[in-house]
């Protein structure tokens, strides 16, 4: 955070003498990036927008256009500085606050983006896209109850927009309210048959959590499709400013949402070379590489992104997760420590820490970490299953039972939770109950190695 602030401040001070027409109360525009390193189309639109600010530095709309130009073409830090200056000139413009929140989120500063939306809420309480966007960010932060409130407000303002209704259902599921989520999704599907590609996968999850496996199976194994965001007039001014790589990114995002990872790799690789300071595109490319199983390439490009944006906790978290999966626990630990230093309460980073501690066989530490993570995200079944596994390694079987049962309350379709429960019940001297739990686990995942291992232990105990 401090590095970013110092960079912007030093850049502004360095150019203060370049704009003698500015009053002392007005900041000069941020410096231009190295235009010779850019796609010529991007360089031209940046140059044109910057000249607009020079011609009238007291015009907030010109600062906004420059900020929009930077934002849509990937210069998030410079965009933030422009929006700050525009807000200094027009502090009651809710649109500027919203655009600033978007570039904060693009930098991985999700909590700051949520805070920035408070001004939008006050100045433009009827702008539904802002409520939907804040709800999405709050879900990412594990703040499901607040997210639900945001999505409900968006639905009240724009009841026909699918994105808000889906957000309500996602929030209800995160809160463990599967029955309400299923009812809402079923009604959407009845009223709007065209919504099935977005609704069915989520509805199947809700039905599984309610134990209605046959109904869930009838929906089929539909692949995940990203829900359309809905109209957002305040960002329409940005779209015509996109040039070169920005258009490639937009296409790659659509491909990634459709899980067309190989196509996304092709699109992003064809747009090279990237700017030296372009972390955003490298992060997308890492996601595409992960999707096609190119782990070394994924890690390499994430390391480049982390060097470019050292204050972006999300990049360091993703790097830690990928390194852990590749078996490089030392590199994973280093990246994770950086992520947690930047965002110590990030639920996703805490989940990565739990996984890493398990891989490091530090089960006592993992148990404590899982407990902390569960406190921050009490409706996350994965975290409770992880807690059960850590406790099983420590032979704390009463706590294994408790964690597994709470996970099953949230999602009864989790074979690992049933297997944990079976193991704990066996160790606690309840073999009949253990056998019934194992039957449920086998019905859900008969080939799962952990389920098989627990089955072998029950078989040995029965001899």
Please provide a brief summary of the model.
This protein is mostly helical. It has 25 helices and no strands.
Sequence-ordered SSE layout with sheet pairings:
Blueprint: H1 2-14, H2 40-55, H3 60-72, H4 76-89, H5 94-106, H6 110-123, H7 128-140, H8 144-157, H9 162-174, H10 178-191, H11 196-209, H12 213-218, H13 245-257, H14 261-270, H15 279-291, H16 295-308, H17 313-325, H18 329-342, H19 347-359, H20 363-376, H21 381-393, H22 397-410, H23 415-427, H24 431-444, H25 449-462
Helix pairs in contact: 2-3, 3-4, 4-5, 5-6, 6-7, 7-8, 7-9, 8-9, 9-10, 9-11, 10-11, 13-14, 13-15, 14-15, 15-16, 16-17, 17-18, 17-19, 18-19, 19-20, 20-21, 21-22, 21-23, 22-23, 23-24, 23-25, 24-25
What does this structure look like?
The chain has 463 residues and is mainly alpha-helical. It has 25 helices and no strands. The protein has helices at 2-14, 40-55, 60-72, 76-89, 94-106, 110-123, 128-140, 144-157, 162-174, 178-191, 196-209, 213-218, 245-257, 261-270, 279-291, 295-308, 313-325, 329-342, 347-359, 363-376, 381-393, 397-410, 415-427, 431-444, 449-462. It is globular. Mean pLDDT is 87; it is low at 1-25.
Radius of gyration: 25 Å
Main β-sheet: number of strands, strand sense, barrel status? none
Topology as H/E string?
Answer: HHHHHHHHHHHHHHHHHHHHHHHHH
Which range best describes the helical content: under 10%, 10-25%, 25-40%, 40-55%, 55-70% or over 70%? over 70%
Note the overall shape.
Answer: globular
> Low-confidence stretches at least 5 residues in length (pLDDT < 50)?
1-25
Through-space gap between termini:
61 Å
Derived structural class:
mainly alpha
- How many helices does DSSP assign? 25
**Extended strand count:** 0
Beta-strand percent range? under 5%
How confident overall, as mean pLDDT? 87
